Amino acid sequence: MKRRNFLSAAVLGSLFTIDSALAKNKKPAPSANKKAGALADKKGAKPGKVRKPTTHTATTPITENPPVGSSSTHLPPVKAPEAPTQWRSYEIQTTITLPKTPGRSRLWLPLPLSQDTLYQRTLSHSWRDNADVASLRRLPEGDLDVFYGEWAEGVEPSLQLTTIVSTADRHFDVTRRTMPPDRDDILRKNLRASNLIPNDGDAHKLSEQIIGRIKDPIAQVRAIYEWVIDNSIYDLTLPGCGSGDIRKQIEERRYGGRSADINGLFVALCRAAGIPARCVYGLRLDNSRIFSSLGLRQGEATRGQHCRAEFYTPGYGWVPVDPSDVRRAMALEILGDRDPRTLSLKRLLFGVWEMNWLAYNFGNDIPLPESREVEPFFVLPRAELNGKSIAGLEPESFKYSISSRRLDG
């Protein structure tokens, strides 16, 4: 009984016993607050303090607390994923010649993913060399496989490495939930920041601005994907895959570069929004059925290194995207923002990888075996001559070539 009703009953009880008994049985009238609450309920609003929606970040990811009924709700897959029926095989040959030096020489080469996926299978490796040490090394971080070679003093190092892989095109279907959950440690790893890819501070503020009131994770990622395409440039003057320095891009508010820069920006913004994402570093293998600028010419792959990206959502697994190749096609094919071919390519590359490309690894901040060097990402050959580290973009002291040949027509 409320305090005011109790006091009223006590006073009246000293005068009128019957009225006291009636007062005990009588239901107290609803207060003004309760009336307001009832009115609010009728209008669909909750009375009292309104709970704010969860803000997802790299430390409170969508995979742990997904919006109810969204694409990240933890629902079981509807059926097991089906393996592709159309595969094509390639022979990739890498030839390395290093200059003779007074000291020992060492070499590291990225190798294709050793674990079979629904889009890639590594079939074999073989090599010819004059090295003292030549072996395949596996690093747990980034599912990374590396060829490592070491040559004695006074030897002119040479190597010919032949790899055979099979690939199949990747297609994401939003109407089918087919993938079992990935391991928690893998998802956590792909929410963390690296030396060059942030997930907090200005990156988080930018991702919040882009996402706005969008609640569904796939719609959030699509907003990030389109923002990256609309606000970045593809710089044809930069070597390789670019620097991958996303911190600098966000600090200076100048977005773009090459594939590791543009797709790295996409990954940073996804992670900042609590959505696991990763760069996938690899090599173009063949011509493209979409645009000639997105493939090789005559199997020359020496400068075919290219970074792609993936994001994760439960039920669908890792979804392929490539905002960088949209910008690349726009730059090389001279396409405007509203060109129908640009709009079609933008839709296509959200969820599709044309597998004229192979994946090397997902790794960032990679400690190479037998080396003190830590690579921000590993997609180019790396050598050490007489204690000096040399990247594969320095042809005057590092001669190498990569060729790709399709084996099945």
Q: Which secondary structure elements does this structure contain, and how are they paired or packed?
A:
Layout (H helix, E strand, L loop, with lengths): L2 H11 L3 H9 L6 H12 L44 E10 L7 E7 L8 E10 L3 E7 L4 E8 L6 E10 L2 E2 L12 H6 L12 H10 L5 H15 L1 E2 L11 H7 L3 E2 L1 H14 L4 E8 L20 E9 L3 E5 L1 H10 L7 H9 L3 E2 L3 E5 L4 E2 L6 E2 L6 E4 L2 E4 L7 E8 L3
Helix pairs in contact: 1-2, 5-8, 6-8, 6-9, 8-9
The count of β-strands is 19
Biggest sheet strand order reads: 4-5-2-17-18
Query: Would you identify the regions where 5 or more consecutive residues have pLDDT less than 50?
Result: 1-51
Radius of gyration, Cα only, in angstroms?
29 Å
* Shape type: globular
Q: Beta fraction of the residues? A: 25-35%
Mean pLDDT over the full residue set: 86
Task: Describe this structure as you would to a colleague.
This protein has helices at residues 3-13, 17-25, 32-43, 184-189, 202-211, 217-231, 246-252, 259-272, 323-332, 340-348; strands spanning 88-97, 105-111, 120-129, 133-139, 144-151, 158-167, 170-171, 233-234, 256-257, 277-284, 305-313, 317-321, 352-353, 357-361, 366-367, 374-375, 382-385, 388-391, 399-406. It is of the alpha+beta class. The strands form six sheets. The protein has a five-stranded antiparallel beta sheet, with no helix packed on it. It has a four-stranded antiparallel beta sheet with strand order 3-6-1-19, with no helix packed on it. Helix 6 (217-231) runs antiparallel to helix 8, helix 6 packs parallel to helix 9 (323-332) and helix 8 (259-272) packs antiparallel against helix 9. The radius of gyration is 29 Å and the shape is globular. Residues 1-51 have low confidence and may be disordered.
